[in-house]
């Protein structure tokens, strides 16, 4: 039995050399957990990186001291987290670099990583938007604007369910935003098949757990504000709006997205209100969603009237989609749920790695 197991691991291991920058953050911790357990990466421990400067919370220390939940034993060697240097990445022959960093830092480091021959999966919003009017919300500055524009043009929005073949060949994958993922996956099949009356507008009312804001506490994510509370924010201006417009092919007056902060650690639930364009029934809608996601193992379409809940997707890489059609046959409510740190961040990043490497899309994620 043991022999059969080790043979299976040996034949599956790829030898691919990966690295994670930002491993001390929430998304970085999930990436470390997923990559260490990934069947294709057995035998090649990823390089885990903290900040360049010595003051980092993650400067040269053990991964298990940083994230005790990842420890696989009570003693012995643990993967190291070392300060970020390009030389180290190069010396270790890094082929795929994950960046789980603030947007500005990603925008600065991605051009160099690509120039050094690495493929990059960036979890930030720095490279997701192609229309400069949408991207302006980030107020990013490029040392070499022309080079950044070329890189932006080549960046692929990392939603495997929509862009699988482009991701497979991409050097730079811009992992989607967490709210955006939940809303895009619910709407794309119905918009692409013309089932929604876009002139009547779509409302996406989304709610997220507090980990979506990252580990640094702010007045609005502090326990005393977030616990026992529910609050709206980012009305008319949240930076994920651009992702919705670009990925769904909508005009800005065709969708209203409002995020809310939920008093839970993780998970997103988006309730989406739309009008049907024709006489589609619940059967037609379910058939359209199922057919669109027939080859997408990380999307689970619920039967009509079976609405997803955060509890059922937390700690998984699934996006669950459910819906109900109004008694008038014209109004549609979709509910889309995911874990913001997994399908909304690190899980989707590993799903993209699988696609880039030609592996089974759900490997290491089930
Ligand atoms: N949280 C979520 O649900 C989602 C997050 N994202 C995106 O993923 C990225 C990471 O998010 P998240 O993990 O939540 O953020 P955190 O705030 O939890 O972690 C940020 C990480 O970046 C590191 N960092 C900060 N500044 C620098 C710098 N100048 N140089 C190097 N490292 C730096 C931090 O290191 P240190 O410990 O030293 O401070 C930490 O490791 C962000 O771009 C975020 O927008 C995307 C989708 C969902
Ligand atoms: C609850 C919460 O604060 N969520 C974050 C979105 C998290 C996410 O998807 O991150 P990026 O798009 O920044 O990568 C927010 O609204 O800013």
Q: What this model shows, in words?
A:
Pfam families: Semialdhyde_dh (PF01118), Semialdhyde_dhC_1 (PF22698). This is N-acetyl-gamma-glutamyl-phosphate reductase. InterPro entries: AGPR (IPR050085), AGPR_AS (IPR023013), AGPR_dimerisation_dom (IPR058924), AGPR_type-1 (IPR000706), NAD(P)-bd_dom_sf (IPR036291), Semialdehyde_DH_NAD-bd (IPR000534). The protein is of the alpha/beta class. It has 2 domains: 187 residues, 3-Layer(aba) Sandwich (Rossmann fold); 161 residues, Dihydrodipicolinate Reductase, domain 2. The protein is 33% helix and 18% strand. The strands form 2 sheets. The protein has an 8-stranded mixed sheet, with helices on both faces. Strands 10-11-9-12-15-14-13 form a 7-stranded mixed sheet, with helices on one face. The site of N-acetyl-L-glutamyl 5-phosphate has 11 residues, from strand 11.
Summary keywords:
15 strands, 33% helix, Dihydrodipicolinate Reductase, domain 2, 18% strand, binds NADPH dihydro-nicotinamide-adenine-dinucleotide phosphate, binds N-acetyl-L-glutamyl 5-phosphate, globular, 7-stranded mixed beta sheet, alpha/beta, 13 helices, 366 residues, 8-stranded mixed beta sheet, Rossmann fold
Bound molecules: NADPH dihydro-nicotinamide-adenine-dinucleotide phosphate, N-acetyl-L-glutamyl 5-phosphate
How many structural domains can be distinguished in the coordinates?
A: 2
What's the mean pLDDT score? 94
| Radius of gyration over all CA atoms, rounded | 21 Å
* Fraction in helix: 25-40%
Order of helices and strands: HEHEEHEHEHEHHEHEHEHEHEEHEEEH
- Described by its quaternary structure, the protein is single chain
């Amino acid at each position: 039995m043991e022999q059969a197991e080790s043979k299976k691991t040996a034949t599956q291991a790829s030898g691919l050399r990966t690295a994670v920058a930002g491993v001390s953050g929430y998304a970085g911790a999930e990436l470390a957990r997923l990559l260490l357990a990934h069947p294709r990466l057995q035998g090649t421990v990823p390089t885990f990186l903290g900040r360049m400067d010595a003051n980092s919370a993650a400067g040269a220390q053990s991964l298990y001291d940083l994230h005790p939940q990842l420890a696989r034993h009570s003693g012995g060697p643990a993967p190291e987290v070392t300060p970020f240097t390009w030389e180290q990445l190069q010396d270790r022959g890094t082929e795929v670099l994950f960046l789980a960093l603030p947007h500005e830092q990603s925008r600065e480091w991605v051009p160099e990583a690509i120039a050094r021959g690495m493929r990059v999966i960036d979890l930030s919003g720095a490279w997701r938007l192609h229309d400069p009017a949408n991207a302006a919300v980030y107020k990013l500055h490029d040392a070499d604007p022309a080079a950044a524009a070329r890189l932006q043009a080549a960046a692929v929005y990392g939603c495997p369910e929509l862009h699988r073949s482009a991701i497979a060949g991409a050097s730079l994958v811009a992992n989607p935003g967490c709210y955006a993922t939940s809303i895009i996956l619910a709407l794309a099949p119905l918009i692409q098949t013309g089932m929604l009356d876009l002139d009547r507008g779509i409302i996406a009312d989304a709610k997220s757990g507090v980990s979506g804001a990252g580990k640094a506490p702010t007045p609005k994510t502090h326990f005393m504000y977030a616990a026992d509370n529910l609050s709206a924010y980012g009305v008319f201006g949240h930076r994920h709006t651009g992702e919705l417009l670009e990925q769904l092919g909508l005009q800005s007056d065709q969708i209203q997205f409002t995020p809310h902060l939920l008093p839970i650690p993780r998970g997103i639930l988006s309730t989406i209100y739309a009008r049907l364009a024709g006489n589609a029934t619940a059967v037609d809608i379910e058939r359209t969603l199922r057919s669109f996601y027939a080859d997408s193992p990380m999307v689970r379409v619920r039967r009509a009237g079976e609405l997803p809940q955060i509890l059922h997707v937390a700690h998984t890489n699934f996006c669950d989609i459910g819906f109900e059609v109004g008694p008038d046959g014209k109004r549609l409510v979709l509910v889309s749920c995911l874990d913001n740190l997994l399908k909304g961040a690190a899980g989707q990043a590993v799903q993209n790695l699988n696609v880039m490497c030609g592996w089974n899309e759900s490997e290491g994620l089930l």
